[in-house]
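Aim 2 progress. For Sialate O-acetylesterase, the working sequence is reproduced below.
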Amino acid sequence: MHLKSFGKLLLLLLLTGATSSAGAVSLPAILGNHMVLQRNAEVTIWGWGNTGEEVTVTGSWNNQPVKTKVNNLAQWSVKLQTSGTSVPQTVTVKGYNTIVLEDVLLGEVWLCSGQSNMDWNANAGIDNAEQHVKEANYPSIRFFQVLKRTADAPQLDVQGQWVVCTPETMKHFSSVGYFFGRELHQNLKVPVGLINSSWGGTPIEIWFSAPALASNPVLAESAAKRKEVEYGPVQSAKAYNAMIAPLIPFRLAGALWYQGESNVDAPEVYAQLLPTLIQDWRTAWQNEFPFYYVQIAPYKYGGAEEWPRLAEAQLKTLRVPNTGMAVISDVGNVDDIHPRNKLDVGKRLAAWALNKTYGQKDVPFSGPLYREMRVEKDKIRLSFDHADQGLVAKGKELTHFEIAGEDQKFVPAQARIDGKTIVVSAKEVKKPVAVRFGWNNTAVPNLFGKNGLPASSFRTDSWPKK
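Predicted structure tokens for this construct:
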């Protein structure tokens, strides 16, 4: 070969190689075809590329290109302002190469997380599964299932992909998440994106960032005491690193949480853990998004007060701003830790969102929650929040009330509804000082608000477990 020709060939090969290696703009899995981006919000689009590479990102809803350059860590990100359109869109990412994301919707995006009851799907068995699966044709509802993984440090990406809600995809996705999303979609008439990052049998400690737990000695000590099990990780931050961190900063409307069964052994610590988790996630996303969670259902745990004390810890978490709790004691199953009625769970979570997040004030969202007590001679009168429409007993008489005097010995009590209050008494307690309601693992109480939603279990005392 002539030297001049060889030189041209070498130059061509070098240029071709440079172009090939430079074509490195890429995106995390959470940014893909069929995704839902939060509507009417500033969303982040991010990824990787070659250092110094110019990246342009354009959303078809406004066709306004946003430019940036890849930094010295091979990372880039831009902010896009989305609109309220519900027509499918595209997102174009252009560097040395071009990526076009198709069938992108703008709507409401919610993260679903927790343990098996959040992860539970129609394929595993839910009430009326066949009918629900058959009806699950909602092109404007999209799912992203995060695959179960662990990591020792926060990861940059997850495994998963966005899919359209069909009978085939719905039956493998979180049933609670699906029913929640369907309620939002049908009421708001907008697209809904649902991200499920859950793992059965896991304690709450694995869903924290490492710094959040380390900063609280009580929580760190609790996490360190966890014993290994066969069905999932127990070491702190393991799931957060692999299944939560890579989703940040994908813009969310809010988060849903259904977990606690694996923490019934230490309910007092859970009263600190759940609020800390909420703040940990909000800090990571730099977004004080709403956080709605499920109060776990009664179940035959080993001791006597595991469920009511864990449920109490969840009740106390309502003190955290912008939170809500779905009570499900009436739709659980004391013989099955996985209640099969996931429809009402999803609908009750959605009621909180519709009322509190989306302003539909006519949607009832909570049953009676204990507020205060007043001793009246040999009786105690109880007052409740969320009882403006009144109280009802589903049955002839109210059940699962107990009363005690200064000896701290509780006995079954008679309880009657008096307007928006309840009067509790027992013949053997002449000077009552405390009342408990639904205070055992298998309690299925019958106190409801007239809005049809059940009351949470509660106690008026703070006495230690005997």
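The longest strand covers residues 98-114. This observation will guide construct design in the next reporting period.
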